[in-house]
């Protein structure tokens, strides 16, 4: 039959050994890790130590699925009590078995007394480091580490019990290699390029088509074990990457400036056309004035008491010539007006695009960005150095919160796959 977790079932979380060791180190030093080992630069950030975020989300998600989540510390306290009893640890039992085997060999004559003494010394040396007093560092470490088998035994009896053990096998939060994000492959950019011819070419020619996209992931692997039968009812593994955290909030901002490329040529053609029309119009006005002056001179000559026929004839010819020139100028002006502006004046606007450096919101520092910041910090001084340090701190705070979000999300989504009523 298909497994479905019992409604209201009691469950305790079994923590990976490496996380138990981390908790023990933090209790001893009373400080938490701030960076990866060997990385002491200002842009360093930790990729471990986020299991507590995942564990809190596991507890929340399991409670939402009607599990009764038992306090892990109570079970660990039971285990510590069991370990303080003589001969109850796995180490003491194994040591006793080896001692008895050596004694039996001596009794049966298989080894000499000297060989038996050497064997006992070897056994004592072998188990010495694991049987130190609880007050020592190694003793405390041994007391703090519990495997699933011990937790199951503790959950089967006593006043604090559980129906299931949720054994967390693997929990990791790590950085991925930076990956290129090609802007022209994005639906929004494709649509923008369709509306703005020339933008695609500008992106390609300027090399601004791709940006480096940093990424991180959280991985969780766990299984649900029946305390009474030891049956593994459910096994799950889930991985979440940064893109899931930013599903509704990750933006790429591309500064784009749009300019009219043929503005100067079109405006020059318009100015040339207007100048020509103005010249034709002015010519008409000048010739009209000359024609009117010729007509007035002819009229005055005709009204004179003493009329000189050759003079009147000359003025008549001047009048006719002026009228003809005026008529020709008017015809040129009328034709120009009918033709309208030349094709250059009516040319469609052509656009050019300048593309700035793309950025992201939120601002996720790439490997190169952190490396460059580190190098600049080493060379800087004064206010510049302080400003760079503030930027590095913002990067670190962002990444710490991002890893916490990854831990919570991977835990929530994995636990939600456990079959329950």
Low confidence ranges: 30-40, 132-145
Strand portion:
15-25%
What is the helix/strand order? EHHEHHHHHEHHEEHEEHHEEHH
Question: Alpha-carbon distance between the termini?
Answer: 15 Å
Instruction: Please give the order of strands in the largest beta sheet.
Output: 2-1-3-4-5
Largest sheet: number of strands, sense, barrel closure:
5 strands, mixed
Averaging pLDDT over every residue, what do you get? Answer: 83
Category from helices, strands and their pairing: alpha/beta
Shape: rod-shaped
Could you characterize the architecture of this molecule?
The chain has a five-stranded mixed sheet. The longest helix is centred in the C-terminal third of the chain and has 41 residues, at 263-303. It is 55% helix and 16% strand. The two termini are 15 Å apart. It contains 14 helices and nine strands. The protein has a domain at 263-346. With 421 residues, it is α/β, with parallel strands linked by helices. The chain is rod-shaped and about 175 Å long.
Key traits:
single chain; two-stranded antiparallel ribbon; 5-stranded mixed β-sheet; 421 residues
Quick summary of this structure?
This protein is α/β, with parallel strands linked by helices and 421 residues long. Helices cover 55% and strands 16% of the residues.
């Amino acid at each position: 039959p298909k497994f479905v977790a019992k409604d209201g079932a009691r469950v305790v979380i079994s923590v990976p050994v490496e996380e138990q060791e981390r908790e023990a180190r933090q209790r001893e030093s009373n400080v938490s890790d701030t960076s990866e080992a060997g990385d002491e630069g200002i842009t360093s950030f930790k990729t471990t130590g986020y299991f507590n975020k995942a564990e809190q989300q596991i507890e929340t998600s399991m409670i939402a699925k009607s599990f009764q989540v038992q306090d892990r510390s109570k079970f660990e306290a039971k285990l510590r009590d069991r370990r303080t009893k003589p001969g109850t640890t796995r180490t003491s039992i194994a040591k006793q078995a080896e001692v008895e085997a050596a004694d039996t060999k001596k009794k049966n004559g298989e080894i000499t007394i000297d060989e038996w003494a050497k064997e006992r010394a070897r056994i004592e040396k072998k188990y010495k480091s694991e049987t130190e007093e609880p007050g020592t560092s190694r003793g405390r470490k041994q007391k703090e580490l519990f495997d699933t088998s011990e937790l199951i035994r503790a959950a089967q009896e006593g006043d604090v019990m559980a129906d299931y053990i949720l054994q967390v096998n693997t929990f990791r939060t790590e950085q991925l290699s930076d990956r290129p994000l090609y802007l022209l492959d994005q639906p929004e950019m494709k649509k923008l390029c369709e509306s703005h011819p020339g933008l695609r070419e500008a992106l390609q020619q300027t090399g601004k088509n791709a940006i480096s996209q940093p990424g991180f992931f959280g991985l969780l692997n766990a299984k649900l074990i029946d305390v009474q039968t030891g049956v593994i009812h459910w096994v799950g593994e889930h991985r979440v990457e940064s893109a899931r955290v930013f599903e509704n909030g990750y933006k790429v901002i591309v500064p784009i400036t749009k300019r009219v490329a043929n503005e100067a040529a079109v405006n020059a053609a318009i100015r040339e056309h207007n100048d020509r029309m103005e010249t034709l119009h002015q010519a008409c006005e000048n010739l009209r004035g000359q024609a009117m002056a010729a007509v007035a001179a002819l009229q005055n000559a005709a009204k004179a008491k003493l009329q000189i026929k050759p003079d009147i004839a000359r003025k008549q010819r001047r009048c006719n010539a002026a009228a003809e020139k005026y008529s020709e100028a008017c015809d040129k002006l009328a034709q120009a007006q009918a033709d309208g502006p030349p094709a250059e004046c009516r040319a469609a606007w052509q656009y050019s695009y300048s593309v700035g450096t793309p950025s992201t919101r939120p601002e996720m520092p790439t490997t190169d960005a952190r490396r460059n910041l580190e190098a600049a910090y080493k060379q800087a001084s004064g206010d510049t150095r302080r400003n760079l340090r503030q930027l590095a701190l913002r990067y670190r705070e962002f990444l710490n919160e991002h890893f916490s979000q990854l831990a919570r999300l991977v835990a929530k989504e994995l636990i939600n796959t456990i079959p329950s009523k």
